[in-house]
Amino acid sequence: MAEDEILLPGATDLHVHLRDWEESYKETVSSGTLAALSGGVTTVVEMPNTKPPIDNPEALSKRLELLESDSYVDCAVHVGLPRELQILSAMRREGAIGVKLYPKDFPRLREAFRAAHDQSLKLAVHAEDPEALVQDPVGPRAEENGVKEVCKVASRVGNVRFCHVSLASSVSAIAELKSHTNGVSFEVTPHHALLSCGPDYRQLPPSLNVRPPLRRECDRIAMFETLRNGIADFYATDHAPHTASEKESQNAPPGLRSLKFAYPLLLTELQDVAMACRLYCERPAAYLGETKGKIEPGMIADLVVFRTRTRPDGQEPEANSNEFDIVETGPFVGRRLGYKVEQVYKGGVLSYSSETGPLAKRGRREHSA
Ligand SMILES: [Zn+2]
Fold this sequence. Notes:
The chain has a single domain (12-291), classed as TIM Barrel. The protein is α/β, with parallel strands linked by helices. It has helices at 29-38, 57-70, 88-94, 109-118, 130-135, 141-157, 168-178, 190-194, 217-228, 244-248, 262-270, 273-288; strands at residues 5-9, 11-16, 41-46, 74-80, 98-101, 122-125, 160-162, 184-188, 234-235, 303-308, 339-346, 349-353, 357-358, 364-365. Helix 4 packs across helix 6 (141-157), helix 6 packs parallel to helix 7 and helix 11 (262-270) crosses helix 12 (273-288). The strands form 2 sheets. Strands 2, 3, 4, 5, 6, 7, 8, 9 and 14 form a 9-stranded parallel β-sheet that branches. The chain has a 5-stranded antiparallel β-sheet with strand order 1-10-11-12-13, with helices on one face. The chain has 12 helices and 14 strands. The protein binds zinc ion. Zinc ion binds at residues 15, 17, 47, 238, 240.
């Protein structure tokens, strides 16, 4: 490796919405996982609100087949809460690793927690209270109430991962839950840690529409701090792409495209390589029970060679150097990255190079240990 290159583990993103199926015009499994691979992300965990949704064994089986044939990276799948909870055991056998709960599932929180626990499935929650969402879809009340409600239920059984936490008050509530309950964790997204809404949260441009919404600067700083000090368990993108014209329209659907730049962005903004790897490689891989995420003997060799801006003499290169990516589209447009993915190895095999692009599809299902 060259002097300005560093070798880091491949990242594991616990929260992505690869589109495909009826939404192939937004993204396919192939294009989404290629974005992941080229950004140094070698494992992704899918969410079930695809069209059609992954909430029954047939849909799950079709999805796993598609991932197996089309994905450039390793994949695992959360399923949606089925109407008949007994089919969760069939979906567990088929290869689901967890259940994702949405605001619409709140009336069934208790039974969902019990069922996931009984089936040894992980539980991930979008913790916004559905009634508060109806009253005010962009205010903080929905998450405040939602996190409180989930904490109440989780204090009995544990086993919960809070998705895309966006408020300082949520971090406090989850810390309190963690102090007496096992198996509690939370994710922080790049957008909630790096972007805020300004003084009036109703004035955001439609292109930045996302759920939960971007918050005020004080909450944005709090979320960034949870990454900086490692209080957040995971950095996860909540990658949820739409077409450029959809995001430019006045009624832009919620969701942001972020998988390709998430890892170099984290390294650049955090300026703490060890913590970045803990949040985006080591902890999420351990959560899945995978022997990867660290560069150690016995670990699967999912590895990324990054070129860094910082030269051996500690000097930054010329400011107008265009060797490094400036994010061209999406929520982080215009940000200059201090890290560039040069090569990605999967299982010790070169799978992507910045010069030649992807070398092979090596999609594989991940099962929790
Ligand atoms: Zn999501």
